[in-house]
Amino acid sequence: MILVTGGAGFIGSNFVLDWLAAGGEPVVNLDKLTYAGNRENLRALDGDARHLFVHGDIGDAQLVAGLLERHQPRALLNFAAESHVDRSIHAPGTFIETNVVGTFRLLEAVRAWWGGLQGAPREGFRFLHVSTDEVYGSLAPADPAFTEQHQYEPNSPYSASKAASDHLVRAYHHTYGLPVVTTNCSNNYGPYHFPEKLIPLMIVNALAGKPLPVYGDGRQVRDWLYVGDHCSAIRRVLEAGRLGETYNVGGWNEKPNIEIVQVVCALLDELRPRVGGGSYADQLTYVKDRPGHDRRYAIDARKIQRELGWRPAETFETGIRKTVQWYLENGDWVQRVQSGAYRDWIATHYAPA
Fold first, then answer.
1. pTM for this prediction
2. How far apart are CA 138 and CA 152, in angstroms?
3. Fold (topology level) of 2-189+225-252+292-314
């Protein structure tokens, strides 16, 4: 079996669902269930004996030690993280506690347990750490994309906390021999994405007749990766990634945020036209840019293609259509995850300029 941390969040839940749908071995799923961790994401697994959900914190060393000893996983995949830049700007302490201290305590628990293994279980164990391209900082328009050798230059409390966790994982491999591998991904999108992030926020607000808030001039560039492709990359890295190595995972889709919003609006115009006519793009509203907003990210994913034979299966056009259709078909999920606290947060952080 495998142990997944953060498996009720956006990427983690997609991974667990994909893993079990593909016939993977049983999963123990540890998640703290913060605002973005949601049991609703895993509803399809209710009653599935292959999935054991445990409500808890990666920083609870005693809990983690007990899970390791009881279940003897062949791998631990660490998705657990606070992951929204805007939230990190206003509440950085939570990000330090989860992403830095939590990762440290998780590594310590794993190191103690793994150190007592013998033979094949010890040799075969893997600790896969899921991270982000934001640890590399920001690129100028003509700069080459981030490779795995790019210097870390995090610019937000979120990216700094993830950079620290990456360094801890690396250090535990080089100091203690812990069998680790790290992935750094670009911006994910797809089903079960909490509706504070750009794409789901645009879909949800558009359908509700609300403004579509775009930071600054909307020309910030990101590489977009469909979450299903990210899951397949992680499976491949777990299967054949070299110990101690980092693999960048990207979608080969660099696009400015304003173009993403326009594409979403065009798809909604096609799939669910506005009552009374007109385009959803009429709801677009520019808001004050967030502090220290990185201008461009771009992932060079040639290493994972060269070494492991992985490339994304989805183009942006196919992935974004699947995503918009999913949100149109799952309005009940959106309603259930949008608590009063979420609505207050959106009102505060996307106030008009």
1. 0.93
2. 10
3. Rossmann fold (3.40.50)
Residue 352 scores a pLDDT above 50: no
Residue with tokens 């094949």: 120
pLDDT, tens digit (0-9, with 9 covering 90-100), for 152-166: 999 999 999 999 999
Closest among 212, 206, 213 to 350, alpha carbons compared: 213
d(CA 208, CA 330): 14
Contact 27, 42 (CB under 8 A): no
pLDDT given at position 349:
46
Instruction: Give domain limits for the chain.
Output: 2-189+225-252+292-314
Integer Cα distance of 232 and 240 in angstroms:
12
- pLDDT per position as a tens digit, 3-40: 999 999 999 999 999 999 999 899 999 999 887 788 88
Q: How remote is the C-alpha of 32 from its chain's centroid? A: 15
DSSP 100-116: IIIHHHHHHHHHHHHHT
CB 185 within 8 A of CB 250: yes
Cβ–Cβ < 8 Å for 146, 139: yes
Least-confidence region, from 44-58, 86-100, 142-156: 86-100
Beta strands in the chain (DSSP E): 2-5, 27-31, 51-55, 75-78, 126-132, 180-185, 187-189, 212-215, 221-226, 246-249, 254-256, 284-287
Q: Which residues are catalytic?
A: 133-134, 158
